[in-house]
Amino acid sequence: MFKRDLNFAKPIQHGLRKGFYIAVEGIDGVGKTTQSNRLAKLLRSRGVKTVLTGEPTHMAVGRLIKEGLRSGGKYSEEVMALLFAADRLMHAEKVIKPALRNGMTVVSDRSVISSLAYQAVATRRRKWVGWINRYAAKPDVVVYISLKPEKALKRLRRFSAQRYERLRFLKAVDRMYRLVLRRGWRVVWVDGDGTVEEVGERIARGLAKFIPELRR
């Protein structure tokens, strides 16, 4: 029964694309933002036209999401899930699709995969979360940075705690990520335990099979 509930985990893909869409994923505290920036810089240094982006965005709905994350309980989990889905559609229309049509490589710090894990756990409504994200842009490859939730939370506690930064929750999200990503997604699994440089090198090696410029 549970496996059938995960059939939502394959968003519909629309339109012809010439570019390549990479999503960097993982629970909070694994270093997604750092590694997204590092990867984009590396690709550009190898001559790959690259757009660096992320979710939630800086657009109007994205700002509401950030407000909800900071405030904790201002919005219900269902409202947060809808906000993420709306922000994601605007992100695709304004940033991702135009870049892909122009043959660029998109590196995104989070994608629809985040909602299929975080919001599915938070709302306990997996099918519904999949349904509201059914038109989301689908990454060509997902880089999943794996780190034990205990270590990730230890990193996070050096900063201010936010809505989803609780050990029990992070463990559940990590499990959901793994279940979702094993349902037909193309994934580069990366050990996130190490220095920024070590993790970055693992990502580059994993992506080399998809991006020729990373092989040299």
From TrEMBL:
NCBIfam families: DTMP_kinase. HAMAP family: Thymidylate_kinase. This is Probable thymidylate kinase. The keyword Transferase applies. Gene3D superfamilies: P-loop containing nucleotide triphosphate hydrolases. One of its GO terms (biological process) is dUDP biosynthetic process. ATP binds at residues 26-33. Residues 24-203 form the Thymidylate kinase-like domain. Keywords: ATP-binding, Kinase, Nucleotide biosynthesis, Nucleotide-binding, Transferase. It holds the Pfam family Thymidylate_kin. InterPro entries: P-loop_NTPase, Thymidylate_kin-like_dom, Thymidylate_kin_CS, Thymidylate_kinase. The keyword tRNA processing does not apply. Belongs to the thymidylate kinase family. It comes from the Archaea. It catalyses: dTMP + ATP = dTDP + ADP. It comes from Caldiarchaeum subterraneum. Its EC number is 2.7.4.9. GO terms for molecular function: ATP binding; dTMP kinase activity. One of its GO terms (cellular component) is cytoplasm.
